[in-house]
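Follow-up to my post from last week.
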Amino acid sequence: MIQIENLTKQYGAVRALDNLNMTIESGSIFGFLGPNGSGKTTTLRILTGLAKPTAGSAHVAGVNVSKDVHNLPSHIGYLPEEPAFYSWMTPQEFLDYIGRLHGLSSSKRIARIKELLMLVDLTEAGKRRIGGFSRGMRQRLGLAAALVHRPEVLLLDEPVSALDPAGRKDVLELIEQLSGQCTILMSTHILADVERVCNVVGIISRGRIIVQSPREELLNRYVQPVFEFDSVDAPVLQRWAELLKKQTWIASVNIEGQTARIVVNDVAQARTELLASAMAQHMVLRRYEEMRPSLEDVFLQLVEAESAQ
Amino acid sequence: MNFLHVFHEEIIEQWRTYRLLIVVAVMTVFGLASPLLAKLTPELLKSIPGLPVGLADAIPVPTISDAVTQYVKNMSQFGILLALLVSMGSVAQEKERGTAAMMLTHPVSRLNFILSKFFALAVTFIISLGMAALGCWYYTLLLFKAMPWDSFLALNGLMLLVFLVYVAISVLCSTLANSQGAAAGLAFGALVVIAGVGALPRIGEYFPGQLFGWGAALMLGGTQTAWSAFWVSIGLIMIALWGAWQVLNRQEL
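User reply:
Got it. Predicted complex:
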């Protein structure tokens, strides 16, 4: 659905995008992660036709964004980081205007506007002037405007950055609901949001994609061979730790208070034997966990490694 | 087709932001004031205490020509100024606020974006000049006598063309600039250049300012025409709009 090949964008001496390659399959929710200035917004602006690449090509829903920009708007919905509106309009008027531009009939517009205002929780404010709206309300209206014509591809630049926790939850749920209906490319720096709604993750650094993978696959790839045990009985935990250190499949055991952090050489063996070994010591456990990296861990690890190169 | 939707929104914006109302009000005031000033100025001069003997008698009796001259003078100054002030933010403001980027990701071509602004501003000036002309014509009728309507219509048509030249140039300046301040600077710079070059003896006859003289001559029985300036004005409008479209096409928003 989105195909980016060797996309390069040069601003004077600064290379914002450096031979970026990326493919986003139809129906996926793609979390586009990267530190500030890594090229996320530049990529989105090129995909919307608002900026032109210095080299390379990009196709969105089969449309070449450089050569066929006039055909692009009917296929995409775009929510910029800070959506701007005509302050003298009301949300109803604005959405009606967008509907007319996309050729929706009067009856379809009325129904769609009602549906969208309800979806983004702006029904009550539907007849108020946008000029008095908060940033969060503008962001929700921007999302509604991007959805008016049921686009095939939704490009969202930091879609929840201005929202309060409740608003963020609502919008993320809305994005989740759109899964399967359209392809979503969502740039963000809030890793928890990506972890929650995105099924594919791409990490960009210094204008290049450093990793692109299904979310679960990425987390599994960077899984650490670490297990943690919380026990109510510190002396038993200590005794058990001494026994474990003698095992060849154990790399190290560290005790902190009533918690043992065990690094293993063989994850499969550890999974079958660790808990049984603890039980054999009649240990009373509060917690047993195979540590899984968060997306934040993976992100930091990858970006730091890229920066160090 | 989308041109009509965008144009419609531009017209509503002119109305809701009071731009249309302000331009109509200002121009109507100057339209009404023209025959009044022509009529009252000699009276005011005569009423100045201590006026030398005989001077009061030397002040000519105002005629319809004075009303027309005053009208052309008022419109040529304030009309052009308004054309610049109202148009200079048309594109720059949208780029500055982000609404241009927001709208251009929907089915609005950059050509329609420029043209809708120009034609909405044109409608504003047609209405405003129409109101000013009506006011001037009515007060002239009250204070002097009826003006020949066909010549007066031609005069206003020519004045409108001059205003549209400045509207188109302001739209171009507004497209070139990234902020309203820069757009204002460019637009006033263009005004100074056009006024300066237009004052030169041989080149000046091709410049839009000549149309005021032609219009006044039509009203006052003169034979002066300015067809070169007429066609140059139309050419300037087309070149400015084409330029604005080309500039916007190359810009990243």
